[in-house]
Design a protein that fits this description.
- The chain is built from 15 helices and 16 strands.
- It is α+β, with helices and mostly antiparallel strands.
- The strands form three sheets. An eight-stranded mixed beta sheet has the order 1-5-6-11-10-9-7-8. It has a five-stranded mixed beta sheet with strand order 13-12-14-15-16, sandwiched between helices.
- A hairpin with a 5-residue loop joins β3 and β4.
- The longest helix is centred in the first third of the chain and has 20 residues.
- It starts with 15 loop residues before the first helix and ends with a helix.
- Bound molecules: histidyl-adenosine monophosphate.
- The site of histidyl-adenosine monophosphate has 27 residues, from β6, β10, β11 and α11.
């Protein structure tokens, strides 16, 4: 027996009905980006594996366990992008966009991570990302938060998400804290779960993130990153908080918020919801002042965020129902019965589209009886049917039948059809 062909686990088809919801959301996001004067950038889905190792970090879950990496026919190691920030920096550098300039950029597209699929977590998923370069913050950090806040308000989700923030300081401050954390936890090595034991030598900060209550209780007396921050970092964070206050944004400071990617510095934030189960982070980001230099550019302050499209769509559906975005329907269905009528149908449909460019006109193709064509017209959702029949055609007329209201059908001279459609 031939094995049944199926989509790859964790990778989803988007049906025509769902595509409409995606497009509606994408249009809102494009408009949002424009309103904040961000410009779109597009970069490839495949990048050299090194890019992610050097940015996301060798000892992160993403690089250690989740990347789709392969050797191509030239023997080069390539990776399906697991996130957008590093490729965005790579592209901006390569295109000369970062030299002595500020940039506000955004992108939207698929990412790939080999995680265990569940609701809100997929192996191919989509992000809307925004990245800013050449601004040291915290003003622009707040702008990034405000864009999210506006989106929630305008989508009726303001009561469904909350903002958590933290500061991770500089790489140097984190290094000192990391050592102190390792020194503190090493005597408790045997009490840590397997994951945390491994992280103790690879990425100890991620232990703070552990969901295991036993690990969390060990951490109560652990050193705190705040105590390792120098004045500059503390000031950046308190200025960030003050500007959020001034903008009327509510937030919670969560000292355990560390993020799963190594490039962050200073401000990090996550928008979380309690409506989606375990996959509760809808949008997340922060500042990454060292990354541009790390990838070969001059020192350039930078920050950004990315929001998960599937999670946002799930949240919209949970809160507002599946019909939140009204589906578009066909406006006019062209029915044609008889040889001569059928021969004229496509041309007449073109004339209908000409008459009113905002109409969606579906022309019956593949023949069929009056009855079966009307069935299709009804299923299409068309508001009216234009009927081409032999006899009327000889008189230069068509019949217009209203499918969604009680208006009586009318016979219209072909010459007047354009006017009727133009006024729809
Ligand atoms: P991230 O936290 O890894 O950050 O991902 C951002 C968002 O993408 C998550 O909050 C979530 O909504 C969505 N997401 C992540 N993984 C999955 C998945 N497997 N399935 C569905 N949705 C997912 C980044 O990627 C950073 N590049 C964000 C950033 C931009 N930081 C600065 N600039």
């Amino acid at each position: 027996m031939i094995a049944k062909l199926q989509a790859v686990r964790g990778m989803n088809d988007i049906t025509p009905a769902e595509c409409h919801r995606w497009q509606s959301l994408e249009a809102i996001l494009r408009q949002l980006m424009h309103r904040y004067a961000y410009e779109e950038i597009r970069f490839p889905i495949v990048e050299s594996t090194d890019l992610f190792k050097r940015s996301v970090g060798e000892n992160t879950d993403i690089v250690e366990k989740e990347m789709y990496t392969f050797e191509d026919r030239n023997g080069d190691w390539l990776t399906l992008r697991p996130e957008g920030t590093a490729p965005c920096v790579r592209a901006a550098l390569e295109q000369g966009l970062l030299h002595n300039q500020q940039q506000r950029l955004w992108y939207l597209g698929p990412l790939f991570r080999h995680e265990r699929p569940q609701k809100g977590r997929y192996r191919q998923f989509y992000q809307l990302g925004a990245e800013v370069f050449g601004m040291a913050g915290p003003d622009v950090d707040v702008e990034l938060v405000l864009m999210n806040a506006r989106l929630w308000r305008e989508l009726g989700l303001a009561d469904e998400v909350t903002l958590q923030i933290n500061t991770l300081g500089t790489q140097g401050e984190r290094q000192a804290f990391r050592q102190a954390l390792v020194d503190f936890l090493t005597p408790f090595h045997d009490k840590l779960d397997e994951d945390s034991q491994r992280r103790l030598s690879t990425n100890p900060l991620r232990i703070l993130d552990s969901k295991n209550p036993d690990v969390q209780s060990l951490l109560v007396d652990a050193p705190r990153l705040q105590d390792f921050l120098q004045d500059e970092s503390t000031q950046h964070f308190s200025a960030f908080c003050k500007e959020l206050d001034a903008a009327g944004i509510k937030y919670t400071i969560n000292p355990r918020l560390v993020r799963g990617l190594d490039y962050y510095t200073h401000v990090v934030f996550e928008w979380v919801t309690d409506k989606l189960g375990a996959q509760s982070t809808v949008s997340a980001g922060g500042r990454y002042d060292g990354l541009v230099e790390q990838l070969g550019g001059r020192p350039t302050p930078a920050a950004g965020f990315a929001l998960g499209m599937e999670r946002l769509l799930l949240l919209l559906e949970t809160v507002h129902g599946a019909d939140y975005f009204a589906s578009p329907t066909v406006d006019v269905y062209l029915v044609a019965v008889g040889e001569q009528a059928e021969a004229r149908a496509l041309v007449l449909a073109e004339q209908c589209r000409e008459a009113n460019s905002s109409l969606s006109v579906q022309c019956n193709c593949g023949g069929g009886s009056f009855k079966s064509q009307f069935k299709r017209a009804d299923k299409s959702g068309a508001k009216l049917a234009v009927i081409l029949a032999e006899e009327e055609l000889q008189r230069g007329e068509v019949t217009v039948k209203y499918l969604r209201n009680d208006k009586a059908q009318e016979t219209v001279p072909l010459a007047q059809l354009a006017t009727l459609l133009a006024n729809l």
